[in-house]
Amino acid sequence: MADDKKDFVSQLQGRTKQFVLRSIRVFKALPPTEEARVVGKQFLRSASSVGANYRAVCRARSRNEFFAKMSVTVEEADESLFWMEIISEAGILPSEKLKALMDEAEELIKILSKARKNAK
Question: Which Pfam family is one of this chain's hits (predicted)?
């Protein structure tokens, strides 16, 4: 059972890191307009925070710290999804270019929220 938990944590660390790397590629693909720059920076901050904060979750020293850091991670994943919706709905990038990453954000939110709930 302990190995299953380690595998899960390791896989989720990999997924959150890949989420950040994929988000960087989306940011690089944004057009050189003022609105894309402003919205893109907000998106990149929240997306990169998902990976960094999940890494901090894995180092939590108590259940309360775990819950607090996991809550931040969920919030940042949700904020990333919000900014992708804005990028799409504002016509900055076509939704087809964002769909896979948006799907991953939704999956991460579900997984992280469930882990947070189980920590209560």
Answer: 23S_rRNA_IVP
58 is written with which tokens? 């894995």
| Domains parsed from the chain with CATH numbers | 2-119 (1.20.1440.60)
Strand ranges, E, within 12-97? none
Q: Is the pLDDT of residue 1 over 80?
A: no
pLDDT reported for residue 3 = 85
Residues contacting residue 41 through CB under 8 Å, at least 6 positions apart: none
Buried b vs exposed e over 75-85: b needs ≥16 C-beta within 10 Å? Answer: bbbbbbbebbe
Rounded-to-integer distance, Cα 29 and Cα 76, Å: 21
- Nearest residue to 51 (alpha-carbon basis) of 13, 8, 100: 13
